[in-house]
Specification:
Number of helices of chain A: 6
Oligomer: homodimer
Largest interface: A-B, 54 and 54 residues
Radius of gyration of chain A: 24 Å
CATH architecture of chain A: Orthogonal Bundle
Number of strands of chain A: 2
CATH topology of chain A: Multidrug-efflux Transporter Regulator, Chain: A, Domain 2
Helix content of chain A: 55-70%
Low-confidence stretches of chain A: none
Number of domains of chain A: 1
Largest sheet of chain A: 2 strands, antiparallel
Order of helices and strands of chain A: HHEEHHHH
Strand content of chain A: under 5%
DNA sequence: CTTGACCTTGACATGATGGGAAGGTGCACG
DNA sequence: CGTGCACCTTCCCATCATGTCAAGGTCAAG
C-alpha cells in the first residue's frame, strides 16, 4: 500500500506520515525498488493509533510513550493511566486559563455599548489595567 | 530608558520588544548614539497595552487591530467589541474541544484499573477506536 | 583599565502542521 | 510506443510566540 492510500485509510496525511518517520515516532517504512514507501496492516494500525491519540490531544512525546506501552505485552496499565492523567490535568489547566480570560473579556464586553461612540471599557482596561467601575 | 528597564516596567521581555518592533507591531524605538534603543512613556504605555492584550489571549494580529483602534480617537467601540467577541468565540471553541477530550479520557481512565496488569481500556480505545463496553 | 552588566544583531529551536518546488514513477489510453 | 496525469520522492520554507545561545559592542563603577 502506497503512502497516499495509507493516509486515506488512517486519516493521517502523507506529509505527517513522512514526518513521523523522520522524527522516529514510527519505524521507517519499507520501500519499493523505485523508492516508494509501502505500508502493511501493522503500519496502518500504528498510524490509526497515533491519529486517535492526536484526536485526544496527546502530544507527540506522550504518544511515543503510549506506543511503547502499547507494543509492550508486559506493560502495567498504571503506566498508561499515569500518562492519561497527566494529560487530563494539562488540558484542565488550559481550560481554566481560557475560562478566566473568557470571563474577564465577557465582563468587559458586557459593559461596552458597542456602537459608534469611541468610549470603550475594553480599550480602557487594556490601556490602564483597570476598569472604570473597578469591579474586576 | 533602555530596553531592559522598559521590559521590567512593562513585563514584556527585551526579546519580545525587539520582535514586536521587527514585525511592525510597534514603531521602531529611538536610538542613542551608540545604537541602544530608548523608550519613553508613550512607548511604555503601548508595551503595557500589548502585554495586557496577550494576557487576555489576543493574537498578535488582533492586537495589531486593537492598537490601531486604541490610537484612533474617532474609533467606534463596536469595532473593539467585535474583535473581543470573535476572540471570546475562539476561546470558547477551544474550551469545548478540550472539554470533549477531557470527558472521553476521564471516562476511559475511570475504567482503567491502573495497576500492574497489562489490560487497559485506554490503549484498547486508542488501538481499535472502540471501548470494550462500547458505552462511548 | 578591568570587570560585569547591559546592549546589539543574527541564527536556530520549539510543536505540529501545511505549502510548494523540482524531479522521478506508475499506469491507462490512444 | 508516447503522452498525460496522478502519485511519489526530497528539500526548503512558513506558521506563532517565545526562548536560547553566541559573538561582539557599550557603559559605569571600582
Amino acid at each position: 500500500m502506497n503512502i497516499g492510500e495509507a493516509a486515506e485509510t488512517t486519516g493521517v496525511t502523507p506529509k505527517m506520515i513522512r514526518h513521523y518517520e523522520q522524527i522516529g515516532l514510527i519505524r521507517a517504512a519499507g520501500r519499493t525498488g523505485s523508492g516508494y514507501r509501502i505500508y502493511g496492516p501493522k503500519d496502518l494500525s500504528t498510524l490509526s493509533f497515533i491519529r486517535r491519540s492526536r484526536d485526544l490531544g496527546f502530544s507527540i512525546a506522550q504518544i511515543r510513550d503510549l506506543l511503547a506501552l502499547w507494543q509492550d505485552r508486559a506493560r502495567a496499565s498504571g503506566d498508561v493511566k499515569r500518562i492519561a492523567s497527566a494529560h487530563i490535568d494539562e488540558m484542565k489547566g488550559k481550560m481554566r486559563l481560557l475560562q478566566e480570560m473568557v470571563h474577564t473579556l465577557e465582563h468587559l464586553s458586557a459593559h461596552c455599548h458597542g456602537d459608534d461612540r469611541p468610549d470603550c471599557p475594553i480599550l480602557e482596561r487594556l490601556s490602564t489595567g483597570r476598569t472604570e467601575d473597578g469591579c474586576c
